Amino acid sequence: MIAIDILRWPGVNQAFIVSFVITTAMALAVIPFGKRRPVDRKSTWGEALVGAVYTFFTMFLAFGVVPHQFIAHADRELGWRKDKMLTAPSTS
After folding, report:
1. CA gap 71, 68 in Å, rounded
2. Measured between alpha carbons, how far is 37 from 81 in angstroms, rounded to an integer?
3. What is the spatial distance between Cα 43 and Cα 49, in angstroms, rounded to a whole number?
4. Which stretches within 1-92 are classed as H helix?
């Protein structure tokens, strides 16, 4: 029997983990698609629009949602705040 309930442990934040995994999967999914496409083929306006929306959503997750979820997790569950030092020098 495990003494720590893994879903209630403060180090696990499901929103951060899921957003990080989805962002990583979306960023890595374009590599096989780019290798499959012929180099000399021009893109249509529809393909360019879909690519732009996909890129925007991936960057929105990477630069908006993932950092927000990490900051919320660090502030709430881990108790890391601006007024708490990670390693404070001893003054006594």
Report:
1. 5
2. 47
3. 10
4. 14-36, 45-60, 66-76
Q: What domain range includes position 57?
A: 14-36+46-76
Residue 91 belongs to some domain of the structure: no
Q: How far is CA 71 from CA 21, 37, 61, 67, 89, in A?
A: 17, 38, 14, 6, 25
Per-residue pLDDT of the chain (92 residues; tens, 9 = 90+): 455 566 666 667 888 999 999 999 999 999 998 898 888 889 999 999 999 999 999 999 999 999 999 988 888 877 777 776 666 566 65
Which residues touch 12 (CB under 8 Å, ≥6 apart)? 6
Domain count, the chain: 1
Distance of alpha carbon 70 from alpha carbon 14, whole angstroms: 11
Residue 1 lies in a domain: no
Tokens of 81: 């705040």
